[in-house]
Amino acid sequence: xxxxxxxxxxxxxxxxxxQWAEHLPLMAACFDAHSRLLYxxxxxxxxxxxxxxxxxxxxxxxxxxxxxxVTITQPIAxxxxxxxAQYERQGHxxxxxxxxWLRVRLVPFPPGxxxxxxxxxxxxxxxTRLHASxxxxxxLRTSPGLTVWELDLQTGQLHxxxxxxxEAHRHEPKTFTIxxxxxxxxxxxxxxxxxxIARISAPDGxxxxxxxxxxxxxxxxxTTMNHGMVRERGPDGVATRIFxxxxxxxxLRQTQTRLQRSESRFRMLAELSSEWFWESDPNDxxxxxxxxxxxxxxxxxxTLNLVGRNLNALYPGQEFSxxxxxxxxxxxxxxxxxxxxxPFRLGPDQALLWWRIDASxxxxxxxxxxxxxxxxxxxxxxxxxxxxxELAAYRxxxxxxANRTLFEKHVEDAIAVTPPGxxxxxxxxxxDRFKLINDALGHAVGDKVLVETAQRLVQLARxxxxxxxxxxxxxxxxxxxxxxxxxxxxxxxxVQQSLGEPMHHAERTLQTTASIGVAVFPQHGRTTxxxxxxxxxxxxxxxxxxxxxxxxFSVALQSRIERRSQLEEELRAAITNRRFEVHFQPIWSRKQxxxxxxxxxxxxxxxxxxxxxxxxxxxxxxxxxxxxxxxDEFITILADCGLLDSFGPVMxxxxxxxxxxxxxxxxxxxxMAYNVSPRQLHVNACxxxxxxMAASFDVPRDKLVLELxxxxxxxxxxxxxxxxxxxxxxxxxxxxxxxxxGYSNLGYLTRLPVSQIKIDRAIASGVSTDRFKAAIARAxxxxxxxxxxxxxxxxxxxxxxxxxxxxxxxxxxxxWVFSRALNLQQTLNLLRDLRTQQTH
Length: 840
Description:
Shape: elongated
Helix content: 40-55%
Number of strands: 33
Number of helices: 31
């Protein structure tokens, strides 16, 4: 036989086995007489970490290590002599370090015309588990139920490599005569087996699979699945040899029988139960409902045929029901449903019923979702009674949302059931500007805004979340599905966006914004009180930062809150006990007839060309523990807490007292500037209050300069102009502070009775090196000269900036270049030293 003919014959055997080898629970391959791979199934290729296509044509020495090839030389020689060879060896599975045991069976191709073996089949099975046992008995008990057999129809013999008809010699090869073998077949299965043999033996037959029970010699029964294929045919086309595999499926069939009996018992109990048992397929279509529920006269299902209907189509109004929305959400996520009560109406004119649903997803052995199995009970009467109690105790009467009590209960429940490593979030929501709507348009309109807000929150909150009204214009959301801070912030952003949409009422368009605080369990708190308190704190932080924001709680925020609370308490006590200190920063005026200095001038020379024309009084506060709190921090707290009206007179008194000492002890004749905001001037009798206070310390009115911070409030409050005019008429000077960086409305500047403007430190600092700052400063100086206004440059800190201001014609400067702000005693010492220098 030529090589090409031999190759075609070998390929034909491989094509035969390829038709069923993928279904075998083992690794299968075909090799030619030179041990080159002709075919392998996926399991064989996976063992080597390759694909079948990558392995085809490779020789055996390229597939196994050299040390292994040496040990299998004899079995390969035997199979090429036409003998069946079997051995065990150890080898490495691709991607694993530990060695695995392999049981290998080599079966020769049927011999060719001259008796030559053209190749062989290789069947491998991972028997590592068998080798984990210590005794031969354990090996027998754990051996996989699979055997290879060959039926020779010409000789009437069947050779099996395992004797399953005798359990005592199960793993020994055995040759049976056909009558002997057929005699062990269960009588009921004999016709099917004979029919399968007849079909596969026919000229057009090739493969057959049949399930057969055999009666062993000891009387026990073994159930098998037999798969055979034709190996040889006679001249008439009738099969003469059949090759096949047999699996022991006894345990599988016994398990199926037990399941069928269990299912039968369940069905019987279900029909006797007052509850309704149901099943649905993966598309939520009902495929089973207990028959008792359909025939029981007291059941509403008696009038309906629900099998074949989709669960989502049972209740027409479910799109408006948060309970059905929650059911849909849980089923879409393939989650368990526990004690979920949903509404149900048989028809448009029928009464509303309530069902309690418990259900679990059905997952098969491959991990695939197969539908739901559950129980339904009619709880209408109980639900109606609970609703009445809950409405009174747990619901907000205006919006219908959960009230604070119910919300806290839900948070406690969430804490109790949240597994370690998982989280949920609490959102604390406050409506900005709601008080303005309530006061301007009335409580009826305000109530409609609250109801609309509640409806939007219900739409935004996912089905398993809880929306609640905390009280007033504050709301809460319990986000059970927020797994971390990022998810909670995304939900809060959606809430913020929705609540910011306009509301329409009686041809009016109303609009609010929301400040939202977020706290996440357990990072931000482990109790209900901690979570609510910290979400509330984060919400107040968002309001402080400008409103219409979302802020998450943090350790830094908690520290700021605690510090702020402590400072507020101490500031109230400080106002009561006048525990503030005044510092004075000198305002230097350039002496008349002094020539301009060049760049070589020293600081001492420059300072000698200036004199102190006034001081600015600056508030300072030191806590009881000695910490000196920055003015920006405590002034902000005073403003937020509404304490500026109380602080203003106290600080003015402290400043005037210190200024009086400068005048009395050092004969200071300059002015004292004191910073006030337009809001402070709203206080009734502020003009007479300041005058009376100045008189009590014997300070002339014309020595007072009130510095006004540039503010849009001045432009929109004409009443302030009359207050300013009163000060001017009484001799008090007015100065516009922070000029150049604030509102800077030149129109109202011409209407204010100010005599001085102060160039802000943001402009003055670095003016010598920044051409933009220089341009603004020059324009301000030119404008002030035209309007006959004094100019003070604040924040002059370097000699270069001082020289620039001097050459630009700025007459007065204030800044660290000459002196920082000094306490009272330091200021007294500075004035004394300057007087001493003048006398010398």
